[in-house]
Design a protein that fits this description.
Chain lengths: 230, 587
């Protein structure tokens, strides 16, 4: 099978190019294994990866125009020719490796941690199974960046719009019955950009390799804001 | 051009659960703490831990930390140090509450307390009925904990050096650790981080085996750094093969799957654990279950066309339990096997999973090594915690749910002790050019150009070699041959050359530096195994099938210098309770 990958090395290349490799397809082969086969032929080819089972979030890339996690994408399901590029909209460091600084910065901007104001109990803070269920579909995010880098609003305003990943994280804490900072969290999201640049294009939902729904989370934040403002 | 220096109170190498819990402790106390990680912190392998963390909360069934301690000592096949085990089992309870307060989204029982599931080797009342001690966030507990710890470190403004690779520790003439030489992966630039205290929290080395549940990054970096700094590695022969890796592929299927009621069958459809562990069945200790599986396959009762694996059944539990309690496992089965585990059994085989051994420490996470005044002298300024360390709380076999516990308890213990150490040692010790030389030599070696073998080729041979010569069942002849082959392979590494000599995000250079580490920890593992002439816990010798407490109830210490072996006694005296004397281990 042939795979064409994006190559760019800032020490050698003036501009990026596409390079095609021949890789022997194995039954059940995931795209990460195919990229590793390329790496075995050509050690200058660079990409991030680690766990190989879709939990560490290292190997989000763009395949045939869509953002995917390489380690859980079977090559057999990909249309030929297979074209692999770095995540869109981010500065390329080398080959498939992009600079995710701004993405992480936006995550840190939403106070992504539980805030508790009352004194802590000696044992656990109680939470009913129903309240805990509200975190399902939120806490599983692996921060791979597939969603935010598929979002046109994030492409245009990465320094001002938090992007779907950070907003999903924001809702994860707003939705947690243990968190006691709802007001501050909502206040911090005011203004035309941080939250409201989401135009429900829903690319994020389409690409999330964990099947999460940032658009719905953003909608819930907007609902809660409306509710609080009345 | 001179290498830039930066100074911190504490340097933490590794951003998994141990490193981040230590960092949180230190940053919250306003120390200047640097966390160096070769991957963005939430990509550390703690993220892949599934089943949960043990603590005797007694939320679901009666429990007591003392029972937890008994199970851990027994599970360790009496090689664990009982002072450290008592400390860990007591500390487990406040540690889990602290995590919950920090935001970990634990699953819940009806009254709102943390959900706990049954895991292997757990009992009530010192060997009685099955206990339910493992606190779980579905089957994504490691992910939930790692993300929460990272989040709290964001709050505490910990200073992260993301995607920096640690080359080596820097040590002065007196043997004190002064910090480390690190490489910024993006730019290829080196940096010296000076610290009053340095914590190694780099995790395991599963990549030394061909089939492993471990991630690509688990290359034993901290263990190898310790070896090169003259610290021996302890109990490295005790490497855990997890009973339920996906056959031929290696992805982990949590022990929680059996905790929720799943069981193993052989090719004849027989529930074979009834013959090996009549009481505990599929929830016997991992070493027992792994050996039973391999025995079934060796005796011709394996499943599949090649009879080379067994099956894990969950289909009798119902889709609701499987999909709700084990959503991550459901995903893995769907993606990698194309099956729904609520309908079809999962093909499984014992898979390289966890190092019980590592860098020797005391229960304050201080690294200890043999020196003039005995086998446990403190190495000034050096700490280790988590899988790379050996306290020893796991002895010869770790219980499921005790690894997340280990990283959290001893990560925190390291943080606490570093606070005291830094208070008593307020100044950085002077660093001379000569102290940096060995680390620069190690890095510079990979600048050599010319014809030579590739890193990938040697690494593949190493992993095959370890699998063939240091697997679930071992014997003298196989391991002796393995040692010779590994020595030859170590020579080959000298002739490996990097074709890619560029600086920017050069993953080939990182993999070369990792290969050095894998070879060192591989040798530690194989040499320690070759010399231990008994069967204990995960170390099963066909030629020495019995445990030999008379001669071998002692910890192994492998030193890189001359590949030499040394030994030190097990600490059998707990802190406050009676010692558990060695007994035959029956499940």
């Amino acid at each position: 099978m042939q795979i064409t990958v994006y190559r760019y090395h800032p020490e050698q290349d003036n501009k990026p190019r596409m390079q095609t490799y021949e890789v022997e397809e194995q039954p059940g082969m995931m795209l990460r294994e195919a990229l590793l086969a390329i790496k075995a032929q050509d050690e200058t080819f660079a990409f991030r990866h680690s766990c190989g089972e879709g939990v560490c979030g290292s190997d989000a890339i763009n395949v045939n125009g869509g953002n995917k996690l390489a380690c859980i994408t079977p090559v057999s399901e990909l249309k030929r020719p297979i074209q692999v590029r770095p995540l869109p909209g981010r500065p390329v460091i080398r080959d498939l490796v992009v600079d995710m600084t701004q993405f992480y910065e936006q995550y840190r901007n939403v106070q992504p941690y539980l805030i508790r104001k009352e004194p802590l109990p000696e044992q656990e803070i109680r939470q009913s199974p129903e309240d805990r269920d509200k975190l399902d579909g939120l806490y599983e995010c692996i921060m791979c960046g597939a969603c935010s880098t598929a979002c046109p609003s994030f492409w245009w305003n990465p320094e001002k719009f938090h992007g779907p990943q950070a907003l999903l994280a924001s809702w994860r804490f707003l939705a947690d019955s243990r968190d006691q900072a709802t007001e501050e969290r909502l206040d911090a999201l005011e203004g035309p950009y941080k939250l409201f640049r989401c135009h429900t294009i829903m690319n994020c939902v389409e690409v999330c390799p964990k099947g999460l729904n940032p658009t719905r989370a953003i909608g819930k934040i907007k609902d809660l804001m409306l509710e609080k403002s009345i | 051009m001179p290498i830039p220096h930066r100074k911190f109170d504490a340097l933490i190498i590794g951003a998994g659960g141990a490193g981040l819990n230590a960092a949180l402790r230190l940053a919250s106390a306003d120390l200047r703490v640097a966390v160096v990680s070769k991957v963005f912190p939430t990509r550390s392998h703690t993220v892949a831990a599934q089943g949960g963390v043990n603590a005797a909360l007694a939320n679901v069934l009666p429990d007591d930390w003392h029972w937890h301690m008994f199970d851990t000592v027994k599970g360790s096949d009496y090689l664990g140090d009982q002072d450290a085990i008592e400390y860990m089992c007591r500390e487990a309870i406040p540690t889990v509450y602290e995590l919950e307060h920090a935001g970990v989204p634990f699953s819940r029982i009806d009254d709102g307390r943390i959900y706990q599931r049954a895991f292997g080797g757990q009992s009530q009342n010192f060997g009685g009925d099955q206990a339910a001690r493992t606190c779980a966030a579905a089957d994504r507990t490691g992910h939930a904990i790692l993300h929460t710890l990272y989040q709290q470190n964001v709050r505490a403004r910990t200073h992260f050096f993301d995607e920096y690779f640690a080359i080596d520790l820097i040590r002065d003439e007196e043997g004190a650790i002064l910090g480390a030489l690190v490489l910024e992966i993006e730019t290829g630039e080196t940096l010296i981080i000076e610290a009053k205290a340095t914590l190694l929290a780099t995790g395991g080395h599963g990549q030394v085996f061909r089939t492993t549940t471990n991630a690509f990054i688990n290359t034993g970096d901290g263990m190898a750094m310790a070896l090169r700094a003259g610290v021996p590695l302890m109990d490295m022969e005790f490497y855990q093969f997890h009973p339920t890796g996906v056959a031929g592929k290696g992805m982990l299927i949590t022990e929680g799957a059996r905790g929720e009621g799943g069981y193993l069958i052989n090719g004849d459809g027989e529930r074979f654990m009834e013959r090996y562990a009549p009481r505990a069945l599929d929830l016997a200790s991992r070493d027992v279950v792994a050996r039973s599986m391999v025995t079934e396959i060796r005796e011709g009762r394996g499943a599949g066309p090649d009879k080379d694996h067994v099956m894990l059944r969950l289909d009798h539990l119902g889709a609701d339990v499987v999909h709700r309690r084990l959503p991550g496992i459901t995903d893995i089965c769907r993606v990698f096997l194309g099956i729904d585990p609520a309908e079809q059994p999962i093909p499984v085989f014992p898979t390289a999973h966890y190092a019980m051994g590592g860098i020797p420490t005391d229960r304050y996470a201080r690294v200890v090594a043999p020196a003039r005044h005995g086998p446990e002298e403190i190495v000034p300024g050096l700490y280790a915690a988590g899988e790379c360390a050996c306290v020893s709380v796991h002895g010869a076999n770790r219980l499921g749910g005790n690894s997340l516990l280990d990283i959290l308890v001893f990560g925190r213990a390291a943080g606490t002790d570093i606070l005291d150490y830094v208070a008593e040692n307020p100044n950085h010790r002077p660093m001379r050019e000569a102290d940096i030389e060995p680390a620069l030599t190690r890095l510079g070696r990979w600048d050599r150009t010319g014809e030579g073998e590739s890193v990938a080729a040697v690494k593949a041979d190493l992993r095959k070699l370890m699998e063939d010569h240091c697997g679930v069942f071992r014997d003298d002849a196989t391991m002796a041959e393995g040692v010779e082959k590994l020595k030859a392979l170590r020579e080959r590494v000298e002739h490996v050359r990097l074709k890619d000599q560029s600086r920017t995000f050069n993953t080939a250079r990182i993999e070369a530096l990792e290969l050095d580490n894998l070879v060192d920890v591989g040798m530690a593992t194989l040499m320690s195994a070759y010399h231990r002439q008994e069967s204990r816990g995960a170390h099963s010798r066909v030629d020495y099938p019995e445990r030999d407490d008379e001669q071998w109830m002692k910890h192994s210490l492998y030193a890189r210098d001359g590949d030499s072996m040394d030994y030190k006694p097990v600490r059998t005296k707990p802190l406050t309770v009676e010692s558990f004397p060695p007994k035959a281990r029956v499940y």
